[in-house]
Design a protein that fits this description.
There is one protein chain. This protein has 1 helix and 11 strands; from the N terminus they run E-E-E-E-E-E-E-E-E-H-E-E. Strands 2, 4, 5, 6, 9, 10 and 11 form a 7-stranded mixed β-sheet that branches. Strands 1-3-8-7 form a 4-stranded antiparallel β-sheet, with no helix packed on it. A hairpin with a 6-residue loop joins strand 4 and strand 5. It starts with a strand and ends with a strand.
Length: 123
């Protein structure tokens, strides 16, 4: 059974930093596709970043240059380092994973999901 547990969310002022973690069980972050999504109140869930088995990464335009996705295969954990945070980054952040297929936000939408962690950025 695949379980994804996010942590590291919190409240921070604009231009601050946070690092989110996603601990996986029943699934190896070293294989296939894993990534981060976020959902703000009243808005649709959007993809933030993905990383595949070759460590190739992809980011949505609004976070490029500020966020970095990475994974530690030994700890079976996914990370999202978020720097230069903005109030518009406020959302619940979710970890998602899938097996096989081409790594993309669309592919991950049909995969396994964590419960989310809240990130609040104040101006």
């Amino acid at each position: 059974q695949v379980q994804l547990v996010e942590s590291g969310g919190g409240s921070v002022q604009a231009r601050g930093s946070l690092r989110l973690s996603c601990a996986a069980s029943g699934y190896y972050v070293s294989s296939s596709c894993i990534g981060w999504f976020r959902q703000a109140p009243g808005q649709e869930r959007e993809g933030v970043a993905t990383i595949d088995s070759t460590r190739r990464t992809n980011y949505t335009d609004s976070v490029k240059g500020r966020f970095t996705i990475s994974k530690d295969n030994a700890k079976n954990t996914l990370y999202l380092q978020m720097n230069s945070l903005k109030p518009e980054d406020t959302a619940t952040y979710y970890c998602a994973a899938h097996i096989g297929g081409a790594c993309s936000f669309g592919w991950l939408m049909n995969g396994y999901w964590g419960q989310g962690t809240q990130v609040t950025v104040s101006s």
